[in-house]
Amino acid sequence: MNQKIIAVVLALLSATALYYSTVEHKDAFQQWKQDFRMVFSQEEDAYRRIIFMKNLELIEKHNADHTQTYKMGLNQFSALTDAEFEATYLNPKSRTAARSEDTTVNAVIGDVDWVAQGKVSPVKNQGNCGSCWAFSAVAVLESWALFKSQTVNLSEQQLVDCSKSYGNDGCNGGFNYKGLAYVKDHGITSQSDYPYTAKTGSCRIQGGSFKIAGVTTVKTCANVQAAIQSHPLGVSADATNWSRYSSGIFNNCGRNLNHDILLVGYTSNYYTIKNSWGATWGEKGFIRLAPGNTCGVCDDPSPYVN
């Protein structure tokens, strides 16, 4: 066959493949908008489509690499740039905690899984607000209540609005253990009495009927892994690269702490973390991290209720 004809045929095949790939990705964007109820103006829609397609390309490339220990997937963050995700959903509060060099991986007698034992409240969603610290603090409290055979739904919004004198700054960041310090001094009210708005507001109700006597914090991997044997505890992590996580054991992170969450399980192979980005993210709202000081989980004070 004439070489020119062969070249033309190959070019047409390449163009056809690119066309169908583009159409498929455009269809994926439309399906994603439908699945996550996303609505944009015409101008923003074009911009978000470009970002979505770039993220989709990263996801597909990552998942094709069989050496990876975790999978990526589409979620509510799939049309955000990394900078937008970090600025909106992570905790920008600066941290001065000294880094732990402890990378201990303690042997365990059986797996620790507080979710399976019914000691973890349902996954919540912090929305477009850097209030992960408040959700982490409330998750600690709700788990503590379950150990006392009490099912409660407590107010993150009250911590967002009312604990500023403790060093927290609402949607602009804070610390789970400082949120718990507020509760120790004032108590906390219910979600129904003080609903979540995902905005920093003025304090409407000070304290509440749910009380705790004290809060303990631990640091270093050895102490964190020992504490989780008895109860869930709040931890901090570098979640900069978590936006595309879907499943598996995550290990692609630094130690720039910017997110507070709840440690709910531990084996010699991974930690199990309850997040606050809704149940459609990750493994039904959870992420598994490689053991040791992955993402800096051993660096910051990790609180639990006495």
Salient structural properties:
306 residues, alpha+beta, Cathepsin B, Chain A, 2 domains, seven-stranded mixed sheet, two-stranded antiparallel ribbon, 7 helices, 9 strands, globular, thiol protease, protease, Peptidase_C1A, cathepsin L, EC 3.4.22.15
Strand content: 5-15%
Mean pLDDT score, rounded? 90
What is the oligomer described by this structure? single chain
Our Rg estimate from Cα atoms comes to: 22 Å
Q: Main β-sheet: number of strands, strand sense, barrel status? A: 7 strands, mixed
The count of helical stretches stands at 7
Q: Kindly state the percentage of residues in helix.
A: 25-40%
- Secondary-structure element order, N to C: HHEHEHHHEHEEEEEE
How far apart lie the N and C ends? 81 Å
What number of domains?
A: 2
Q: What would you call the structural class?
A: alpha+beta
CATH topology of the largest domain: Cathepsin B, Chain A
Q: Which CATH C-level class of the largest domain is it?
A: Alpha Beta
Q: At CATH's second level, what is the architecture of the largest domain?
A: Alpha-Beta Complex
Low-confidence segments, ≥5 residues, pLDDT <50?
15-21
Coarse morphology: globular
Q: How many E-type strands?
A: 9
Structure description:
It is a single chain. By secondary structure, the protein is α+β, with helices and mostly antiparallel strands. The chain has two domains: 3-68; 83-305, Alpha-Beta Complex (Cathepsin B, Chain A), CATH 3.90.70. The chain contains seven helices and nine strands; from the N terminus they run ααβαβαααβαββββββ. The chain has helices spanning 3-35, 42-63, 82-89, 132-147, 156-162, 176-186, 221-227; strands at 70-72, 112-113, 215-218, 233-237, 245-250, 259-266, 271-274, 286-289, 302-305. Strands 1, 2, 4, 5, 6, 7 and 8 form a seven-stranded mixed β-sheet that branches. A two-stranded antiparallel ribbon has the order 3-9. β6 (259-266) and β7 form a beta hairpin. α4 (132-147) crosses α5 and α4 (132-147) crosses α6 (176-186). The chain is globular. The model is unreliable at 15-21 (pLDDT under 50). It catalyses: Specificity close to that of papain. As compared to cathepsin B, cathepsin L exhibits higher activity toward protein substrates, but has little activity on Z-Arg-Arg-NHMec, and no peptidyl-dipeptidase activity.
